[in-house]
Amino acid sequence: MALLKVLRHWRRYGISSVIAKVAAEFPAYLCKIYLWRIRRCACCERLAIFLCNGSAEFRACMFCSANERYELLAAEIKNRYGSKLGEMDVLELDPNSPLMKILSRARKHVRTFYEPVGERGSFRSDGTMCQDVTALTFPNESFDLIISSDVLEHVPALERAFRESRRVLKQEGAHLFTVPPRLKTKKRAELVEGKILHLEPPEYHRDPLSAQGILAFWDMGPDLGDVFGSDLLQFSVVRGPIGADKRTVWMAQRPKSS
To answer: What is the mean predicted confidence (pLDDT) over 14-27?
Structure first.
């Protein structure tokens, strides 16, 4: 119910659809008013009401829609890079991220979206670029920093995604990301000849573009670095855990070549 999301919905579907959506959803927010909070948002940096219609994890800034995981990323970006952002090239795997205000301070800030049938490297009217995280179109060593939030668990070929992160990162560059915390890293589903084979009961996460949600192909736990890490891409938890679900920020860093 953030104002930014309402505005995007208005632009895409019109005022009548916005009125219907607010009428349908706002009562659930009112029922959870005891979970609302007033404080300064770590992403848009404004004093805001944090609205909630479910668990505290999904409490979101009324202005930019930042929730707990985005604020964790914002805190890590500010703490780790600070004024150095102005000298950095940043790739963000999110076209509508509440981190835009912070990351716009970078020398270059590339925002991307994914569509299975989209032409990789093409642009939308909002300036975002179509990319596949397992086959990026950027040259080697293009970015100092990659940011993603709850994206990687939905990538079937996760090992290829991490190889691409390593390829497009400059030396000592890093991919900061969040994923839903789990006890152990394991594959939940895989693609076999274009069809989904479920290895675990299907798990779908919230997706504004799909009522069903988006399928999780992976669980990722504390052993993530043991499963995917190497001398070429080193994994560590750099912030957290916090909250009831023990959210963390991971860093996959390309080390300096010897």
So the answer is: 67
